[in-house]
Write a structure and sequence with these properties.
Elements lengths: L4 H6 L7 E4 L17 E4 L8 E10 L1 H9 L21 E9 L12 E4 L23 E4 L1 H4 L7 E3 L6 H5 L1 H9 L14 E6 L7 H11 L6 E6 L2 H14 L2 E4 L3 H6 L1 H5 L5 E7 L4 H8 L2 E10 L6 E5 H7 L2 E5 L21 E5 L4 H12 L6 E5 L3 H17 L3 E5 L7 H11 L5 E6 L4 H8 L2 E9 L8 E5 L1 H4 L3 E4 L5 H12 L9 E6 L3 H9 L6 E5 L8 E2 L3 H4 L1 H4 L10 H12 L2
Parallel strand pairs: 8-9, 8-11, 9-10, 11-12, 12-14, 15-16, 15-18, 16-17, 18-19, 19-21, 22-23
Antiparallel strand pairs: 1-2, 3-4, 3-6, 3-23, 4-5, 5-7, 13-20, 22-24
Helix pairs in contact: 5-17, 6-7, 12-13
Amino acid sequence: MAGSLAEHEVLDYPVPQHMLAWQLYGPGLENLGENGQPVSIPVPVPAQDEILVRIDAVGLCFSDVKLIRAGSDHPRILGRDLKADPTIPGHEVSVTVVKVGGKRASDFHAGQRYIVQADVFYEGDNPAFGYAIPGGFAQYVLIDKRMLDGDEGCYLLPVEQDLGYAEAALIEPWACVEAAYVITDRGGTKPQGKLLLVIWSGADRRRALSEIEELLRGDARPSSLYLSDENPERRQQLLETVSAAGAEVRTLPHPTELVTNAEAQLGQATRFDDIVLICPPSCEAVDTFLSLLDKDGIANIVGDALRGEITVDVGAVHYQGVRVVGSDEDTLLEQYTANVRADLKAGGAAWFVGAGGPMGQMHVQRAVASKNAPRIIAATDVDDTRLRYLQSRFEQSAQEKGISFHALNPRNFDEQSAFERKLLELTASEGFDDVVLMAPVVAAIEQAARFVASDGILNVFAGVAIGTKARVNVDLVFGSSKIVGSSGSRIRDLERTLKFTEQGLIFPNESVAAIGGMRALRDGIEAVQNGVFSGKVVIYPHVVNLPLTPLDELRETMPSVASRLADRGLWTREAERALLERELAK
């Protein structure tokens, strides 16, 4: 270990033979490390096509909590025998190269600094960093060919030398926030995909039928069509069109019979890229088919007489990119592109649900700082302390930009209806153009859906489990509004977010709420699990014994570090340097 910050920065010290790591041996915090402490394990030696990196800082994420809770039941390490083959969590990291295998010498050298794209794809597999690939809850980690020669290239991005360690590590969660505002969907049916088409009797003489024939003849035609139609003559006509196009076709029973037992008729393993429902008789009929969407699948509903609520798997929206679109008119194909907006509506009204937590604060910070900011921001949370902190950080800046900023706790209203009247009052009963959900609660999602404006976006950012169903009014999708969601980020999102950080357009350091050394990591995870801090917890693995310390306590415990904080006690590169100078010299 280096004896000074200068030695640490230039690697003027021998890499040790052993290191501290928080290995995960099973589900639960009791299986993170041993007896509540990190374990000492050998520092790995890189093979010819590997590199060894030092973990300079690691941000703690609620996704880490989910992994620790689930152990080998977590989807990313499903079935792994953690007792025999433990993993090391931690995916929000900044790193420095310390050793380079011979075959990598032309691309890497000691002293280079990087951030890591955690969502790794290698030969079609997805062995994420901090999950299947050991991550940042350690002092050093090997980077192998899965990350260096991935399907999207190298999953390490170089950073400028003057970028702070915490600042760099928190670019990863910021990339997840940025990814939520660049969601793009295909503009039509999936070419060569699998299409389920169900047509009820009310579809006679509709324009949608001619659009179906146009679709079946066009470049985006499916490779296979499953067809159920109440009208035998029309069914025969469609079959002839499909056959002429060379697509495989399977005729299904009458729609009424199909609705009663769709999975039995289709087979439980049958999933569709597109499901087109023309004139379904009820929302219950629609619900029968929505569960049959495949990953990235789209359900398109046409039906002017349809009223009531449909059931949407909001977990599949978040994790699998499924979508539901629709029209109460005669149109079909144009609904795929009826609302192509992804970012917040400039000059619109935005509501952030669960805004007081670390990720919620990032969303609000981004909205306030945006060149195309909304005119109204409602930030709600059930924790008054978090809301006060959020107000102290963003309300003045918002007002200086002419944004009407409202921090609201629904529990402070006498009844729910009073809270909802306040939401309507803020938007003159027009609803919100953007509703972004950080609260993984079905009731909150269902409530939020009622306040989405026409052409608005309900963004399910919270990681609700696949299979989590929410009831939403069918008018939500008929009004050219949409429900979207995203999980994690891709390398392009990390590249864009790094660029924004280096240009001074976003400020990851402002998200830091508490810091600690390696032995404090378990305390940090507990704090994240219990929602103790409004911002992020950052651990410095090579500062071993620093206890978990909220930034607002630094004036008492480390005044030399506190003196380098920014206005409102925000973390800075200078404060980080003061901390490392103080702690590494011990």
